Amino acid sequence: MSIIxxxxxxxxxxxxxxxLKLTTSEGVTGLGDATLNGRELAVVSYLRDHVVQLLIGxxxxxxxxxxxxxxxxxxxxxxxxTMAAIAAVDVALWDIKAKYARMPLYQLLGxxxxxxxxxxxxxxxxxxxxxxxSIRAHQAQGFRAIRVQSGVPGLHAIYGIASNATSARNAxxxxxxxxxxxxxxxxxxxxxxxxxxxxxxxxxxxxxHEFGPDVPLLHDGHHRMTPIQAAALGRSLEPYDLFWLEDxxxxxxxxxxxxxxxxxxxxxxxxxxxxxxxxxxxxxREQLIDYVRSSVTHAGGITHLRRILDxxxxxxxxxxxxxxxDVSPVGMAAAMHLGLAIHNFGIQEYMVxxxxxxxxxxxxxxxxxxxxxxxxxxxxxVELNVDAAGxxxxxxxxxxxxxxxxxxxxxx
Length: 412
Ligand code: GCO
Ligand code: MG
Description:
3-stranded antiparallel beta sheet; binds D-gluconic acid; 10-stranded mixed beta sheet; Enolase-like, domain 1; alpha/beta; 19% strand
């Protein structure tokens, strides 16, 4: 038994996705998500030019060995491109193994630890009126937990606020507010941390007043604050009982979180841009965070993310896997199987994919009463419709970037 084909499929139904498809000599196929938003083709090249020929002829059953081989033989370790490529191979191999076993993947990972995965959705508004409408719309879709992002007076374009932009090329199609804008240059947004810190507590006060104490509320700081600013925000949000404050600092410096932690009891989530267990070493060992934000797609697949979460479990740190629309349905399915199986599941981010994405990726998951479930189809439960994928060729897209009012580039 061996891998006989490894195809890298690039498609852009509502946004760009990169998918690895492995085929075995038994005629079984497996899929892995290799999408790195805004840098998609770097992972395509890593796979096509450097990994595919290493996979042909390998025993598809040796998942751990293949992971270690790709990681160690590259010599150049870690990094988002490498780890997304390894993740895609890893998930495709788990998909194949579960299909051989005729079981949904979560069964191979130890079986279900819960009935379904509590998921949170992204509500946002330029002002409180828009935000309240957005929260109500999410609740009507079944969401029980809500991320709250608000416009800030004086700033014209900021992260997380739905723009409802329409693309001229795809007239009438509404893009989600995840801002991988298609085009040859990144869009410019503006930022002022002091205005934001002044404005946000009042937004949460209004939301609690309107929607009551029960609904779990989350917020994403998107890497913009210094440690002392993050500490101040965490403290000023304490009366509103957040489920978590996410990415309060750019966490390359793990030690920065010591200061934040020291000053606030607001729970902290971090790690969507991390890609290995080493990024969490200080954060987990010193119990500086409450939730691990990495996705299966960006942190080395099921094999590696499970390792991170197992270490985190010793410290009662839970999962909060990244699930924006730039994680493809393949990556989301892998997350759901892992989340269903592990004991220390916390919450799953869930942004609903567009209809064209659902046409390309045939999926078996269910979404009911605020809970996700990966379904009972053998494998991860996703198949790629190659003909549909072919209708939507790659389009260059960039994430936006930020400048302060004086023109300085800031973290986005
Ligand atoms: C989130 C993230 C996303 C990222 C996006 C970048 O919490 O979902 O912050 O909104 O900005 O995934 O590609
Ligand atoms: Mg985030």
